[in-house]
Design brief:
319 residues; mainly alpha; Tetracycline Repressor, domain 2; Four Helix Bundle (Hemerythrin (Met), subunit A); 2 domains; 75% helix; globular
């Protein structure tokens, strides 16, 4: 699909493809943003496992399925609303709606149906506190981030990042029926991780965001200010990552992983801050973006290993 010369002034419904598309299963799966969904499922699972109360395996499966479907619903609704700017940005132009594989109406119906279904099923099969949190997460991502903040403020990813931080809290609530400081700590880690992660992406995709009229920080404040903010948030994040150990929901293994991975994170943020011009600047920003995904995975994987390793060892020992 060709790219327009300029971004639309606001949210506009384009003429687009016919009322009924020729979408297949893979197109609807792509609407759910599977890479994002996989991270949501993983962090939700960790929140569930780390929670101080056990959860029945069947209930856990139902909760994770609802979290996955809810995340997919949010992704589909995001693609429905952002179809106009997705068509302009090189990074998103191949998504199903801009390509004409799925109509906007189909994306809206698909997302809304999954959103309502996941919230109701979570309430009936798991518990209503987890259901309410799931509903708030979907609503926050769609209405607060996508519709309100994304096109209006360079703080879009700071405030809107809360939506991606809720899954471990939902998993915790699925196991315990509520939230406490432990789940808040897991929320805070992802919340603080989100800005440097996405600002690194925005640094090497600045032209994309500028063309689409999305006021990401590098577009509005420039690369130097963005690099400064990445470094500040990175320092805060690496310190905050030790909160689970301080609160007693993580142990020595997690602390070692947090220290080593955190040192790598700070090293990467420092390189982004120092190297500001030329092709090398984009290469460093891209490398930091990729490392940031590994960093978050390493933290939550360490929590998961600490919680499950004794039980697994016990099973082998019993044999």
């Amino acid at each position: 699909m060709g790219q327009p010369d300029a971004a639309p002034a606001g949210h506009q419904m384009s003429a687009g493809p016919p009322a009924i598309s020729a979408a297949d299963v893979s197109d609807y799966f792509a609407l759910m943003k599977p890479r994002v969904m996989s991270l949501v499922i993983f962090t939700g699972l960790v929140g569930m496992v780390v929670a101080p109360m056990p959860i029945h395996p069947v209930t856990a499966f139902a909760a994770l399925l609802c979290i996955a479907v809810g995340a997919g619903a949010a992704g589909a609704l995001n693609m429905w609303y952002d179809a106009d700017i997705d068509a302009i940005m090189q990074r998103t132009a191949s998504r199903p709606v801009p390509r004409g594989r799925v109509t906007r109406g189909e994306a809206l119906g698909f997302g809304a149906t999954m959103a309502v279904g996941s919230v109701l099923i979570m309430g009936v099969l798991v518990n209503w506190p987890a259901s309410i949190l799931l509903g708030l997460t979907i609503g926050y991502y769609v209405f607060i981030y996508t519709i309100w903040l994304k096109r209006r403020t360079p703080q879009n990813i700071v405030i809107g990042g809360a939506a991606g931080a809720f899954p471990p809290m939902i998993g915790w609530a699925a196991a315990t029926g509520g939230v406490d400081l432990g789940s808040v700590a897991l929320f805070a880690i992802i919340f603080m991780w989100t800005p440097p992660h996405f600002w690194a992406l925005a640094l090497y995709r600045t032209d994309d965001y500028e063309r689409a009229g999305v006021p990401m920080l590098p577009v509005v404040a420039g690369g130097d200010k963005t690099r400064q903010q990445i470094l500040i948030y990175s320092v805060l994040l690496v310190g905050l990552a030790f909160a689970p150990a301080v609160l007693g929901i993580a142990g020595l293994f997690y602390s070692i992983v947090a220290a080593i991975a955190g040192a790598g994170f700070l090293y990467g943020a420092g390189k982004v801050y120092r190297i500001r011009t030329g092709p090398e600047a984009n290469r460093v920003a891209r490398a930091f973006f990729r490392y940031s995904i590994f960093y978050l995975f390493a933290l939550f994987a360490a929590l998961l290993v600490e919680q499950t390793a004794p039980a697994i060892a016990g099973l082998f020992g019993a044999g």
